Recover the amino acids of this structure.
């Protein structure tokens, strides 16, 4: 891996940049595997003193609002309500089946006499 800095010609409108170049030896020759720009510097005389690096392009932490990983009660209520409905449905179907069987057994017992 090579880190290099490319300087433009004097008077050029191109910025000075840093590059990270990764090389791989294949068949006795060194070939470029990847080349990534890692920093950009302002042009001479541009009046801008801002250097931009590849880390500037990464997601930055949100310092205005701190969150501590707490989840709201809704995340417990919704799955809980679904679970109660599923269990309630099974209990309701079991009661309906039990009552239907009890009526059928009572009707059969009356007819057999």
């Amino acid at each position: 891996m090579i880190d290099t800095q490319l300087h433009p010609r004097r008077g050029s409108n191109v910025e000075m940049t840093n590059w990270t170049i990764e090389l791989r030896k294949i068949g006795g020759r060194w070939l470029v595997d990847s080349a990534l720009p890692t920093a950009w510097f302002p042009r001479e005389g541009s009046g801008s003193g801002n250097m931009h690096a590849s880390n500037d392009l990464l997601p930055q932490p949100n310092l205005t609002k701190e969150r501590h990983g707490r989840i709201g009660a809704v995340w417990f209520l919704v799955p809980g309500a679904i679970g109660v409905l599923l269990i309630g449905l099974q209990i309701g179907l079991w009661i309906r089946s039990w009552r239907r069987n009890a009526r059928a057994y009572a009707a059969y017992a009356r007819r057999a006499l």
User: Anything to note?
Assistant: The mean pLDDT is 83. Residues 26 and 86 are 62 Å apart (CA to CA).
